[in-house]
Amino acid sequence: MAKDGTTAIAVLNDYSHPESVADYLRRISPPPAYMECGSDVVADQKRFMLRWVGQQSFSRYVGKMLGGPGDSVDRVWEHLARDDNVRELRKGLIYIARRSWRKEQVPPERVQRLGDWVAGKTPLLDPSAHGWALLRAVAQELYRLGTSSSGMMTADELKRRLPSCWAWDAWCMEEPCGEAWIVLKVLSYMVRMCADGGLLEDSKAEVSMISLEAYGNDPSGGIFRSLHPCMHWMLDWELKKLIRTPAEEGTPVEDGLACPLCRTPIQFARKLKWIQVATEAPARRQRAAVRIQARVRMRQARKRVRATKGLEQVPEAYSQPLQETGQVPL
User: Fold this and answer.
1) Would the pTM of this model clear 0.85, i.e. be above it?
2) What is the domain extent for residue 239?
3) What is the arithmetic mean of pLDDT over 66-78?
4) What does the H/E/C string look like for the chain?
5) Residues 30 and 120 in one domain
């Protein structure tokens, strides 16, 4: 059950029976009563939300990147539908899911169902199946919620639309690894893949409001703070310098301190560490492949030494630890 008494996110669908887009959106979306309390959720220190560094709303940013109209968005989805990108998407999502399962302590039976779902045993991640269209429909719905119908996003219009986006961000966290949570994680990984490929603007280019440095260039370890309830962002060291005392996770800040950008009083600031999800998993696999190749080459080198020189023991050079590059001493 969700914290407001409504039924939590629906169980995972196997997508074997086509479901209409309207029914699907109605099934996984926050209830109307929940959509109306977005401003309260973002100001509640006991609630948690999906967040994206530098963005006021996770779901709004995902919708903006993948749900808008135009040929550029069509090209993004065509790029994602390539076989190699679909394979990489599945591998990356397994990596994300494993991290989340360990962190959120999801029950084993749900882990198995989620593993089957993310690994591609169901057609959600198959571009030729119905589930792929449902993914894009969710992105379009998020775009609709976070964008003005007139195309002109004023400050007042943004203030009116953000609570609905915050409701989505919080609703997904009501049940981590539930269907709505996974759908937004799928879409977010798509955004990261396309940003790495140069098809979308990279969020690492967002600039800090205080230091005027790009978030991606932060030398202090990539630790950020979301300021509640306005959901603007600061680097962790910037906030500590501003309040002159270390801020623990979710600790209320001093009275009278306001957001440097919008001057909204800050109730609390929540930490988030920048994780290069889109490149971290492939890099780990590449390093593992290098280590495996190095071990194979080491065994082959030892066999050649024994065969040509008849040595009973391997020379000292071959017993040295492998270097980081995985090269074998010759």
Assistant:
1) no
2) 215-273
3) 90
4) CCCCCCCCCCCCCCCCCCCCHHHHHHHHCCCHHHHCCHHHHHCCCCCCCCCCCCCCCHHHHHHHHHCCCCHHHHHHHHHHCCHHHHHHHHHHHHHHHHHHHHHHCCCHHHHHHHHHHHCCCCHHHCCCCHHHHHHHHHHHHHHHHHCCCCCCCCHHHHHHHHHHHHHHHHHHHHCCCCHHHHHHHHHHHHHHHHHHCCCCCCHHHCECCCCCCEHHHCCCCCEEEEEECCCEEEEHHHHHHHHCCCCCCCCECCCCCECCCCCCECCEEEEEECCCHHHHHHHHHHHHHHHHHHHHHHHHHHHHHHHHHCCCCCCHHHHCCCCCCCCCCC
5) yes
